[in-house]
Design a protein that fits this description.
By secondary structure, this protein is an alpha/beta fold. It contains nine helices and seven strands. A seven-stranded parallel beta sheet has the order 3-2-1-4-5-6-7, sandwiched between helices.
């Protein structure tokens, strides 16, 4: 059964906005990325999502396809973003079956809570490889298609009018705000996302002359996501919610709307930028969460982070 569109996209955008366009998304079965892709599909695009888990990725693709009658959504599982051939094979399949790649969402990521003392070298490297190397591989594999799409959808340099064919040749990197001020138990992700941000900025400069735009969306705490459940301990969730400037968390629709803005003609002159969608969360005082994890007392105990939903019992 198709989800109500109000759950993943605002009624601001016109139907058919992305007709005859193709979006390629890594981590596309995740809660946030699937909403981004679903919004694009609802507004006319076809899509290819990739992930590690075959069943989860293929199931998510079938579900996303219900957003619009006649939509084509391919789910490619068993893809390791750390391996360039794995990404390249998925890109080739996408282009063969859907005809092009006009938009890319680099959303594959890994995260867990751990202090630097708890964090092994291998665990740190794993997050760096998934986030930074994975984003780089995604960019490398899709760039020829983004350049081709950008060339087809140029803004007229004299009249500054958008192409009648719409927009294309754009990439979004899904990042975070953790590294803006420093966040306890998130050194690995903070370093990785800082690298992703630098990659996007470089891509904007190097490929802007070819018409390609590159931007970052940095979500804050988004409700009903695995990340929020895993990273905010259950015993402080209520207090953390109350502490937000807007008194609530964001929704996946907020991230999807930001995606539509950047990919449509509204974002034609936006590149090399970071669009923070966090309700001013990161501007609050640093120091981590409250309650049983009050900063710096909890760090000084040397204990592992407790009460984290979905926490894996593995060696860090």
């Amino acid at each position: 059964m198709s989800l109500p569109s109000v759950d993943y996209v605002s009624d601001t955008w016109k139907h058919g906005l992305f007709a005859n366009k193709v979006v390629f998304c890594t981590g596309g079965a995740g809660t946030i990325c699937s909403a981004q892709v679903r919004a694009m599909v609802y507004l006319g695009a076809n899509a290819c999502i990739i992930g590690r888990n075959v069943d989860k990725t293929e199931s998510a693709a079938r579900d996303i396809a219900t957003a619009r009658p006649g939509a084509k959504v391919i789910g490619v599982g068993a893809v390791d973003v750390r391996q360039i051939k794995s990404i390249q094979d998925a890109v080739d399949r996408c282009v063969k079956e859907l005809g092009a790649i006009d938009f890319v969402i680099a959303g594959a990521a890994g995260n867990f809570l751990a202090s630097i003392n708890q964090l092994s070298v291998n665990a740190f490297k794993s997050v760096m490889d998934i986030d930074v190397l994975g984003s780089y591989n995604t960019l490398k594999a899709t760039l020829p298609h983004l350049v081709e799409s950008a060339n087809k959808h140029k803004v007229d340099p004299e009249t500054l009018r958008p192409s009648p064919l719409g927009s294309g040749g754009r990439i979004i990197f899904v990042s975070a705000t953790l590294h803006y001020r420093g966040t306890p138990f998130q050194s690995h992700v903070s370093v990785a996302k800082a690298g992703v941000d630098a990659l996007s900025n470089s891509a904007a400069i190097e490929f802007g002359p070819l018409g390609v735009t590159s931007n970052i969306i940095a979500p804050g705490p988004i409700a009903s996501t695995e990340g929020l459940d895993r990273l905010i301990p259950s015993d402080v969730m209520a207090a953390y919610t109350k502490s937000q400037p807007l008194g609530r968390f964001g929704s996946v629709r907020d991230i999807a709307d930001a995606t539509v803005y950047l990919f449509s003609n509204t974002g034609s002159y936006v590149t090399g930028q970071t669009l923070v969608v966090d309700g001013a969360n990161w501007r609050m005082s640093s120091g981590g969460t409250t309650g049983s994890m009050s900063y710096p007392d909890f760090l000084l105990t040397g204990d592992a982070v407790p009460n984290v939903k979905g926490q894996k019992k593995s060696k860090l």
